[in-house]
Structures are given as C-alpha cells and as structure tokens.
C-alpha cells in the first residue's frame, strides 16, 4: 500500500469522526420534535436502505448463517442505541455523554473475559482505574446529584462492548457494507417496535425537524458508514482504532459552539481522564503505528 493512500485513508477517517460528532448535534435537534426511539428506528431503517442500494452487488450469494449472526449483532445494537438515545434525550451536556459512551472501547476486553474467558491485556488493567476515576469526577461533580442520563450512556457503552465482541467472534464472510446494512436495519426495526410499544407517535413533523432527521440519516449515518468502510479498507485496523477515539472530542467541541454548553473544572478533568484511558487501552495499536512497517 502506498504512503499516499495510507495518509488519504487516515484523513477520511478523521472526517468520519467529525461526521460522527455532528451526528450528536443533528440527533439532539431532531429528538426535540420527534420521539427518541421512533427517530432512531426510522433513521436506521432509512440509512440501511440507502446502504443497500449503494452496495446492491455485494448482497448476492449471502450465507444464511452469516445473515442470522449479523441480525443478532443488529439486535444488540438496537438495545444499545435505545440506551444511547435515552441518554441523549435526558442529558444536559453532550460532551460529557460522548466521553462516557466512548468507554465501550475500554470495556471490550473485560466483556470478552466474561463472555469467552479471554484474558484482557495489561493495557486494559492500566486503563480501567483511570476510566473509573474519570467517571467519578463526572458523576460526583455536583455532589451526589448526578444526571441519570450518565447511567444510560454507560449502559450504551456496555452494549457497544458486547456488540464488538460478537462481531470479533462471529466469522461472517460478507462485505462490511452488507454487514453494516443488516445491523442498521435490524436495529432500526427493534427501536421502531419499542417506539410503537412505549411512545406516542407524532401526527406531524415540522420542516425544521425533518431537516435534522435527514441530516442525521443521510450524513451522520449513510455517508459516515460509507466513508468509514472505504477508509478502513485502505489503512491498518490499528490506525483506524486510534483515530476513531476522536469522536467524543469533536462532539464536545461542537456542543460548545452549537448549544453554548460549558463544563466545570471537574467535568473537564473527568473527560480528560476518560480520553487518556481510551488511549491507554489502545496502547498496543498506538505503539504499532510508530513501528517500521510496509506502510511507511
């Protein structure tokens, strides 16, 4: 692989994290006029359909066993996103929520330990106390009167860790675009069913809310996953894993400018510690970036 293609891929992935950060803004604006789970359900179904149209040729000759496994991952994704959108709906600070939700990358090896008996690497044991300390600063910033939305975001982090473990264990020989389409579609159906059971659907939606819905669906979902798929095909997974840690950073920055959010000193320290924990958990990947390789 040429160095130019490698650099191009990393720039694409950085742009993907920017789109993901904007996705938090788009979603927060959309659920101001739509029931949260209804919004996420329709968003994922539409985004999945768009990806299906784009990658139609990759859907030929699918293995039914692989489809069932991808559907199971989509089911977990649906539950994960249920917690995420509840946190988004009830939370008052997007930046804090983004850092808590991003703890999933730290929790992946721990979940693997309980699910498959895998031994977490030393980097995870070093990252955990830093992450817990960061959560402590966030949760206790206002004494014991913390936001329950933080619990929802943490549950979404656990769900993401469970989802990533299933993906790593399932041997699904299908194009990543097909896998993403199935996951989004199944997750969308789960969320839409939950919405029909628990939410009152709106009789109408304003043009402004519809615009935010389309932005979150076409830009923060369909376009984001297309670029992510392309970018990750051109660069080592270790590089991509480190770059994707930028999402909560962009979310916090955008929330400051868009919603005039601010963080106390304790919250800033908590987010910083969580970010450091994420980097520590990725230390093997970070170290590999600086080693001589065929990509350099």
From TrEMBL:
Keywords: Cell membrane, Membrane, Transmembrane, Transmembrane helix
Transmembrane portions of the chain: 7-26, 38-59, 71-88, 94-115, 122-140, 146-164, 176-197, 209-227, 239-259, 265-284
Superkingdom of origin organism: Bacteria
GO cellular component terms, A-Z: plasma membrane
Pfam families listed in its UniProt record: EamA (PF00892)
Main localization, broad class: membrane
SUPFAM superfamilies (alphabetical): Multidrug resistance efflux transporter EmrE
Domain named EamA: residues: 10-138, 149-281
UniProt protein name: EamA domain-containing membrane protein RarD
Matches recorded under InterPro entries: Diverse_Substrate_Transporter, EamA_dom, EmrE-like
Bilayer topology annotation: Multi-pass membrane protein
Compartments in which it is found: Cell membrane
């Amino acid at each position: 692989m040429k160095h130019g293609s490698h650099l191009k891929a990393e720039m694409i992935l950085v742009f993907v994290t920017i789109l993901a950060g904007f996705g938090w803004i788009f979603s927060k604006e959309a659920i101001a006029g739509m029931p949260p789970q209804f919004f996420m359900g329709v968003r994922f179904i539409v985004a999945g359909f768009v990806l299906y149209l784009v990658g139609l040729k990759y859907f030929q000759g699918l293995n039914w066993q692989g489809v069932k496994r991808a559907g199971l991952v989509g089911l977990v994704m649906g539950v994960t996103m249920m917690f995420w959108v509840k946190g988004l709906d009830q939370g008052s600070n997007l930046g804090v929520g983004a850092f808590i939700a991003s703890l999933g990358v730290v929790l992946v090896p721990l979940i693997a330990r309980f699910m498959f008996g895998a031994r977490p690497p030393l980097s995870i044991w070093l990252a955990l106390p830093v992450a817990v300390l960061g959560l402590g600063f966030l949760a206790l910033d206002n004494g014991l009167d913390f936001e329950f939305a933080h619990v929802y975001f943490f549950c979404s982090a656990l769900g993401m860790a469970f989802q990533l473990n299933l993906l790593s264990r399932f041997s699904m020989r299908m194009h990543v675009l097909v896998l993403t389409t199935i996951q989004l579609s199944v997750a969308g159906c789960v969320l839409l069913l939950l919405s029909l059971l628990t939410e009152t659907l709106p009789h109408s939606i304003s043009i402004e809310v519809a615009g935010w819905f389309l932005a979150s669906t076409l830009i923060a979902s369909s376009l984001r996953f297309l670029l992510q798929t392309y970018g990750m095909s051109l660069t080592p997974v270790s590089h991509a894993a480190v770059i994707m840690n930028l999402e909560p950073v962009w979310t916090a920055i955008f929330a400051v400018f868009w919603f005039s959010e601010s963080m106390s000193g304790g919250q800033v320290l908590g987010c910083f510690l969580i970010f450091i924990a994420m980097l520590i958990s990725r230390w093997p990947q970070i170290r590999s970036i600086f080693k001589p390789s065929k990509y350099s």
